[in-house]
Write a structure and sequence with these properties.
heterodimer; A: 431 residues; mainly beta; 29-stranded mixed beta sheet; 10% helix; B: 369 residues; alpha+beta; 2 domains; 3-stranded mixed beta sheet; 8 helices; Right handed beta helix domain-containing protein (chain A); Beta_helix (chain A)
Chain lengths: 431, 369
């Protein structure tokens, strides 16, 4: 009697620890100490964006700019938007009452650099239909106490070509900090993403390289997704290397506390996920430090795992042609997530014992058109880790439904191959 | 043990206070000051845009009466975009000697054409032609390099309106049809925000000035006429083959028409300017044009992509038979920036619109397949 009544309390306690304590409000600096610019000066910046001419540099001076309307650069070419430095120029959109993002960019050869964007109700910077986009030393953050009110993406290039994201900082997005969607030819490098639900996410993109970044203290570190039903239907070709993907154990705050996942896929990411590949095609993950992510280092999953409909044109729900090699792992954080279904799956059903952090998991869902037997590795998932003997690998078998989940520690079927992932970003490397 | 338990309410209280102070909004009184810019003289030299609305000479007599000069044609789309219950009076100017042209389903206006859209609130909505306050006039001018939009904000004395590219904010009061006093924080978009809606393949593009919208009746000079037929009659349109030869869209507010048609007409004019393949929301894969028949593109059992907060606690854009579990309804009935759709132009809830779409979704067959 006594025992049963203390159980809920204990569970609540664990959940509270998991849900509340691992929340970051870290800020790079205190923007309230900057001199506040006058309403006229703020209006001047809005006007500069509207009246911009091709081949122009828009300089934004030091100080805190309290914007009440969006900054939109519309269909211009060869424009540089330049602040006085990440810690000197702050564009705050806290008082924005309408509009989907703080700064919106459409054009050709656009550079944004040396500034901070705070508290945009939707996205921080959205760039769409832009060929040639450089975001350099741009910092986007949210400073509210209640993180479930934060905006969706910090840096958000979508339907763009030739994208360079360099030395940027993205913090506290309730979806992805650095999110590149439906784009092609992409570099994300030397940037920092922390306190977001997803640190860096490449979604429905072709030809992307993600390297030299630090993704720490997000719920998920680096994600490569393909989602159904989009104009850019299935992306392929991503390399993720030389990144530090550490301690991504932040609470998943994409939905408010007490609410389960909604239709946004990111709401399902269990805290403690290093790298997640979902319906991803041709991805190489190598030479990364994937450390102290409490649930899983690298998760290879198909879209079926979301439980959402998988019928969409020109798109496959399966993850295929993946090469994971030469990464460093550290499971010392312990205790995988229990707040999310995928966390529970890993925690309770992995092949090595309950509540053991896994280095690599594969959901084992495969396309029968490519092979009848998972042992034959039909989806071409290739793992070549030098220390594989000491790593915890789990391959699930979910084919018998929730009531009969099987899992296997044998990595051998997946170690006999490699994948040559082709990317070419030389054209944008000089941006 | 008891002492420890007592500690919790205090902690929760503190958290609550913290959360509350974090959410508290600063007031924005500074942006509500009276608006009466000094009028200066300006010549109509043909170099658009002019600083003052009056300089264009579109209206005769008192500007605030909005009495069109000869040749400025009033128009009204069959279904209209909701803009915080603002009333709109719209006019089109087609240069002398020029004509608009119908090719296929497209209506092309010649260079030099101007669309004039006035946004106003009657003091009393039960007397729509009575006293009113005009808030803004948006001009869309078809220049050599395409359309361009210019927002003019009316002064408090309603004698003129001045070009203000950065937009603004003003408090509007009116009495609604039911006799209830309403206050709205009306937001005038900045010039580049116009393209949030008026966007076709990243080019500024008129919205209501389409064949399907103008192939409808309107009272012009006291007589009810088909608008396209009228344009053709006054020599301002070529390619018009008679009203039945061109596409039409219904008026969503006409309750005698079929529900699904009304609902799709509503989504077309309120959402499809973005939510179409040529629009900025093409990223979402949610396409809400009148002719859309693909269930996935219409949002039926479709998961969101970048909805963030907008998804609420829901999984799909439309759940057949379950309007209140559909993201579409969730976003239509929100006024929270980041959640509310459309993203701009609406700070209040369009109750009638929500009701229409709710009824439509609830009428859908909810049985699987």
């Amino acid at each position: 009697m006594k025992k049963s009544s203390s159980y809920p309390v204990l569970l609540l306690f664990i959940l509270l620890i998991q849900a509340c304590w691992e929340t970051s409000h870290e800020q790079l600096f205190d923007s309230s100490l900057l001199p506040k610019r006058t309403a006229e000066e703020v209006e001047g910046v809005v006007e500069d964006f509207i009246l911009a001419e091709n081949n122009q540099t828009i300089e934004i001076g030091e100080g805190f700019f309290d914007l009440k309307t969006q900054l939109i650069l519309d269909s211009k070419e060869n424009i540089t938007i330049k602040g006085a430095g990440m810690t000197k120029t702050v564009l705050s959109f806290r008082n924005l009452k309408t509009g989907g993002e703080g700064m919106k960019i459409v054009g050709k050869n656009i550079t944004v650099e040396d500034l901070t964007i705070e508290d945009a109700p939707g996205d921080g910077i959205k760039a769409q239909h832009t060929d040639g986009l450089t975001l350099r030393k741009v910092h986007v953050t949210w400073t509210h106490g209640n993180k479930s009110k934060n905006g969706t993406y910090a840096l958000y290039p979508v339907q763009c070509k030739n994208v360079m994201i360099d030395e940027c900082i993205a913090a506290h997005s309730r979806d992805a900090g650095i999110y590149v969607g439906q784009s092609e030819n992409i570099i994300v490098k030397n940037s920092l993403a922390y306190g977001n639900v997803a640190g860096i996410e490449i979604e429905n993109c072709d030809n992307a390289e993600v390297f030299g970044n630090t993704a720490r203290n997000n719920s998920g570190g680096i994600l490569v997704f393909n989602l159904p039903g989009l104009p850019k239907s299935d992306g392929k070709g991503t390399k993720i290397y030389n990144n530090r993907i550490i301690e991504n154990n932040h609470k998943n705050f994409a939905t408010p506390m007490g609410e389960g996942p909604n239709g946004n896929t990111v709401t399902m990411i269990p805290p403690g996920s290093g790298v997640v590949l979902l319906a991803a095609k041709e991805v190489e993950v190598y030479d990364n430090e994937i450390l102290r992510n409490k649930t899983v280092g690298v998760a290879v999953a198909s879209y079926q795992i979301t439980g959402f409909p998988t019928d969409a044109p020109n798109w496959s729900p399966y993850t295929s042609d993946i090469y994971i090699h030469d990464n460093a792992y550290d499971r010392s954080k312990g205790m995988p997530d229990l707040t999310h279904e995928l966390g529970q799956l890993i925690s309770l059903y992995n092949a090595h014992g309950k509540a053991k952090t896994q280095d690599i998991v594969y959901d084992g869902i495969f396309d029968e058109g490519r092979g009848k037997d998972i042992e034959g590795n039909p989806m071409n998932i290739c793992i070549s880790e030098p220390g594989i003997k000491d790593l915890l690998f789990t391959r699930f078998d979910l084919s018998q439904g929730e009531d009969d989940i099987q899992s296997y520690p044998d990595v051998a079927p997946f170690t006999q191959c490699n994948v040559s992932v082709e990317t070419d970003v030389t054209e944008i490397a000089s941006r | 043990m008891k002492g420890k338990i007592k500690f919790y309410p205090a902690l929760f209280g503190a958290i609550f206070l913290l959360a509350f102070s974090a959410c508290k909004k600063e007031s924005n009184e500074e942006s509500m000051i009276s608006f009466d810019p000094q009028k200066d003289s300006e010549e109509a030299d043909g170099n658009f845009p002019y600083r003052w609305l009056s300089t264009y000479g579109f209206f005769e007599g008192d500007l605030k009466n909005l009495s069109p000069i000869e040749g400025l044609i009033p128009y009204e789309p069959a279904s209209s975009l909701f803009t915080d219950y603002a009333h709109k009076s719209r006019f089109v100017w087609i240069p002398e000697g020029e004509k608009a042209k119908i090719s296929g389903d497209e209506l092309d206006l010649p260079e030099g054409s101007v669309l004039v859209k006035n946004f106003y609130y009657p003091e009393d909505f039960s007397k729509p032609t009575g006293e009113r306050r005009i808030i803004e006039t948006r001009l869309m001018i078809h220049q050599a390099n395409g359309w361009e939009a210019f927002p003019y904000i009316w002064n408090d004395s309603q004698t003129d309106a001045i070009l203000k590219v950065v937009g603004g904010e003003t408090k509007v009061t009116y009495r609604d049809e039911k006799g209830k006093d309403q206050v709205i924080n009306y937001l005038i978009p900045n010039k580049n925000q116009c393209k949030t809606c008026h966007n076709k393949n990243e080019k500024l593009d008129p919205l209501g000035v389409e064949v399907k919208h103008l192939n409808s009746e309107k009272k012009i000079k006291g007589e009810s006429v088909n608008q396209l037929a009228y344009w053709a009659n006054v020599g301002k349109l070529e390619g018009f083959l008679g009203e039945n030869e061109h596409p039409k869209i219904v008026d969503y507010s006409n309750e005698s028409l079929p529900l699904a048609e009304r609902a799709k007409a509503y989504l077309d004019i309120n959402c499809a300017h973005c939510h179409r393949e040529e629009g900025p929301a093409s990223t979402s894969g949610l396409f809400l044009g009148f002719d859309q028949t693909d269930p996935l593109k219409l949002g039926i059992n479709k998961t969101p992509v970048a909805a963030g907060n907008g998804a609420g606690s829901f999984q799909f854009d439309i759940v057949p038979g379950k309007a209140d579990e559909s993201i579409l309804i969730h976003r239509m009935k929100s006024t929270e920036v980041g959640v509310a759709m459309p993203e701009i132009g609406r700070t209040t809830i369009h109750k009638e619109g929500v009701e229409l779409i709710r009824t439509w979704i609830n009428s859908m067959d909810s049985s699987p397949n």
